[in-house]
Amino acid sequence: MSDLGNKKVMSDNIQYYLNKNGITRKKLSADLDISYSTLSSWLQADSYPRIDKIEMMANYFGVSKADLVENHEKEIVTNYFSKKPRMIPLIGTIAMGVPITAEQNIEKYIPEYMMDKYADDTLFALRCKGDSMYPLIPNGAIATIKQQPDVEDGEIAAVLINGEATLKKILHVGKTVVLRPANPEYKDIILDKDHPGTILGKMIKYEVNFD
Length: 211
What we know:
By secondary structure, the protein is of the alpha+beta class. It has 6 helices and 9 strands, in the order H-H-H-H-H-H-E-E-E-E-E-E-E-E-E. A 9-stranded mixed sheet has the order 2-1-3-4-9-5-6-7-8, with no helix packed on it. It is globular and about 50 Å long. The relative contact order is 0.11. About 30% of the residues lie in helices and about 25% in strands. Strand 7 (about 175-180) and strand 8 form a beta hairpin. It has 2 domains: about 5-80, lambda repressor-like DNA-binding domains (434 Repressor (Amino-terminal Domain), Orthogonal Bundle); about 85-205, Umud Fragment, subunit A.
């Protein structure tokens, strides 16, 4: 396997165990005293951790070093389809003043796999519209969202603005929240007291070509 391939496998495995254990990048960075920029470099497959750091993360996650350095894609896919799916609400139009998963907001229910660590009432899905997040997220993709009131910098959030839900990267600048599109042809959206918006939750993943 090429050096780039090794970095990608390591990146995927670290992210897998973060997701599986419900641990944020910030918490892992703090708990292991690893700089956030270094950890981000590993997760972006830009660099590869030293053996002592691999051993440290393996002990932290309660796995072997092989679990972090070897390609487990086939095993993960097999486990993915062996579990019974959960049905989560796909949100259509959003009625103002009611909870996001209220019946009047729900278009239908769709199957979701490998979400056992999340409570039943914390997940919903949105259909992505437009190309403001292209090429990161294509138009028509279905995004799975975990309800929570805030997200970390660089994460993608579902944000409610004037009754419309939009997906954007989040940046915090003082008390101001910046919503950043992935498509450079679109401008940032600034949330402040004069331009309010509500973070509905964090995007966990997305899928395309959903029927």
